């Protein structure tokens, strides 16, 4: 027996609608088709249509039909010193953009995350949460020029030793 789900939403302020049809594929993967009001408003068209295949916590492959564009996302969790490290790789084919994201939770109050965009900069974020719901967050952006300087300085120091 095959189970499918259909979810819809209408935003009154924007006058827009969207619907998602989800069908289980092989194993625990899911095939999704998402439609917006642009798909049907001026007669049937491919505007606002996207297709995706995903397995929760493992991968997502999105296809934007009108733009003929793919997005690949792969996720995994590894353990380093008994702490789970979440890793995500995302590639946008049309924009030719690739990012790597990672995060580690040391304990319920301390979390570090990092993001690196190929051809762009890197970001590092540290979050400390107080027990009462408050917290502090620090961010650092590492521009390409500084990264290059730090890498060349490290290579120079290694040669000196």
UniProtKB/TrEMBL annotation:
It is a multi-pass membrane protein. Keywords: Chloroplast, Ion transport, Membrane, Plastid, Plastid outer membrane, Porin, Transmembrane, Transmembrane beta strand, Transport. GO terms for biological process: regulation of monoatomic ion transmembrane transport. Its main location: plastid. One of its GO terms (cellular component) is pore complex. Transmembrane segments: none annotated. GO terms for molecular function: porin activity; voltage-gated monoatomic cation channel activity. It is found in: Plastid, Chloroplast outer membrane; Plastid, Etioplast membrane. It comes from the Eukaryota. High-conductance voltage-dependent solute channel with a slight selectivity for cations transporting triosephosphates, dicarboxylic acids, ATP, inorganic phosphate (Pi), sugars, and positively or negatively charged amino acids. Homooligomers form large rather nonselective pores in plastidial outer membranes. This is Uncharacterized protein.
